């Protein structure tokens, strides 16, 4: 599969709209969605329940058709493809699912062989291909087991191997780790990363967990009520989130929360009289915040309370979040100082 000559994108959503006719009227699931997914990238779409993630994903393999705009896979219009042309696109787009969707009556081997049998691959070529895939996902010891005898992580490995059977160039992941515990999630994400790197596979995944994007996605988009409200490189979005929805997803993943005694007293408007301003300070790269906070005190005479803090990594690039409080009367001056020195600030509220 070559990439689109016009765009270079492996997947391109062009002003895509999708509405459903229901008994209670028309439901607009997606509106004016434009997004390019670069070849070889891992792009994550995050959104709340009902935001339109599944509808968007299902358009890439033609399970849904857009009512407006177009979806191009390697430059080919999926929404308008029919018959053999649609089947050809689908062979190049693999998919994995939250609940694995394995056939209970087939072994690991049998599940992985199925798409090859359907595609009419000669039996003599199926066995070596399936054995290769089983080795790639590390299930050699489980090849003859049935799904009921597998752990969740092993089932998802079968799902991944099955999705790779027809040598797709694009892998769609529909909440593939949502049913797994955190440790198993990490091993499955690591496998997806290896596949992306080794095979140059483009991965488009949907999730409601920011941590999944942080751990695996090079690019991300935030979808809210059928529209993309923010998109870009994952690192940039994490460090400089613009939209309130992105910020609210982020607050759950940065690993820092306000101490309960402050969170319970936080007011959005600055109260009259003496109060403290609670500020989130975000810094990218190896920015040293300690000297900056110390200088805030020594140069401006602003006393800083550190409430919480954490440093995280996206790829190998660190970024950090600190929650601090300063006297509210000095808040604006303190924030301006930190911003001048390359840190990002956000007022979370005030406490009396
Ligand atoms: N076949 C359908 N018929 C009618 N409405 C639908 C259909 N499919 C999706 N919708 C509606 O479109 C909107 C987006 O749904 P979608 O399943 O894409 O969201 P989602 O972000 O994947 O949500 P979730 O995380 O809960 O799966 C919702 O309002 C949903 O009710």
Describe the structure in your own words:
Helix 3 (108-118) packs across helix 4. The chain has a 6-stranded mixed sheet with strand order 6-7-8-3-9-10. A 4-stranded antiparallel sheet has the order 2-1-4-5, with no helix packed on it. Residues 1-6 have low confidence and may be disordered. It has 2 domains: 11-241, 3-Layer(aba) Sandwich (Rossmann fold), CATH 3.40.50.300; 254-351, Alpha-Beta Plaits. The longest helix is centred in the middle third of the chain and has 18 residues, at 182-199. With 352 residues, it is an alpha/beta fold. Helix content is 34%, strand content 30%. Adenosine-5'-triphosphate (ATP) is lined by residues 20, 22, 27, 29, 47, 49-55.
CATH superfamily of the largest domain: P-loop containing nucleotide triphosphate hydrolases
Overall structural domain count: 2
CATH architecture of the largest domain: 3-Layer(aba) Sandwich
**So what's the CATH class of the largest domain?**
Alpha Beta
Number of DSSP helices?
12
Kindly state the mean pLDDT as a whole number? 92
Given as residue ranges, the uncertain stretches (5+ residues, pLDDT < 50) are: 1-6
The level of helicity is: 25-40%
Structural class comes to alpha/beta
Order of strands in the sheet with most strands: 6-7-8-3-9-10
Q: Please provide the count of β strands.
A: 14
Ligand inventory reads: adenosine-5'-triphosphate
Multimerization state: single chain
Which sequence of SSEs, written as H and E, runs from N to C?
EEEHEEHEHHHEHEHEEHHHEHEEHE
Largest sheet: 6 strands, mixed
Task: Kindly provide the radius of gyration, computed on alpha-carbon positions and rounded to a whole number of angstroms.
Answer: 24 Å
Family: Belongs to the ABC transporter superfamily.
Domain ABC transporter: 11-250
GO molecular function: ATP binding; ATP hydrolysis activity
Protein name: Cell division ATP-binding protein FtsE
């Amino acid at each position: 599969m070559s990439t689109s000559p016009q765009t270079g994108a492996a997947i391109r959503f062009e002003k895509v709209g999708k509405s459903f006719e229901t008994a209670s009227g028309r439901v607009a699931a997606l509106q004016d969605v434009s997004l390019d997914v670069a070849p070889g990238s891992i792009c994550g779409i995050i959104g709340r329940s009902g935001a339109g993630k599944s509808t968007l994903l299902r358009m890439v393999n033609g399970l849904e058709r857009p009512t407006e705009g177009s979806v191009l896979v390697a430059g080919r219009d999926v929404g308008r493809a029919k018959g053999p042309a649609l089947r050809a696109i689908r062979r190049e787009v693999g998919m994995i699912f939250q609940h694995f969707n394995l056939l209970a009556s087939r072994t690991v081997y049998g599940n992985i062989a199925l798409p090859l049998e359907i595609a009419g691959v000669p039996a003599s070529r199926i066995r070596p291909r399936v054995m290769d895939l089983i080795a790639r996902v590390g299930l050699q010891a489980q090849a003859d087991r049935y799904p009921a005898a597998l752990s969740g992580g092993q089932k998802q490995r079968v799902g991944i191997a099955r999705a790779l059977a027809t040598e797709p160039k694009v892998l769609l992941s529909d909440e593939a780790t949502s049913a797994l515990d955190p440790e198993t999630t990490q091993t499955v994400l690591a496998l997806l990363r290896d596949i992306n790197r080794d095979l140059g596979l483009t991965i488009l995944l949907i999730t409601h967990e920011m941590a999944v994007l942080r751990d695996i996605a090079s690019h991300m988009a935030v979808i809210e009520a059928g529209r993309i409200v923010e998109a870009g490189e994952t690192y940039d979005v994490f460090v400089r989130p613009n939209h309130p929805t992105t910020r609210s997803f982020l607050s759950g993943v940065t690993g820092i929360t306000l101490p309960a005694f402050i969170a319970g007293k936080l007011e959005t408007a600055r109260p009259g009289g003496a109060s403290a301003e609670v500020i989130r300070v975000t810094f990218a790269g190896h920015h040293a915040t300690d000297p900056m906070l110390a200088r805030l005190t020594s140069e401006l005479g602003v006393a800083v309370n550190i409430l919480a803090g954490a440093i995280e990594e996206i790829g190998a690039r660190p970024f950090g979040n600190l929650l601090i409080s300063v006297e509210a009367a000095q808040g604006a001056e303190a924030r301006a100082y930190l911003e001048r020195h390359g840190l990002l600030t956000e007022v979370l509220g005030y406490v009396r």
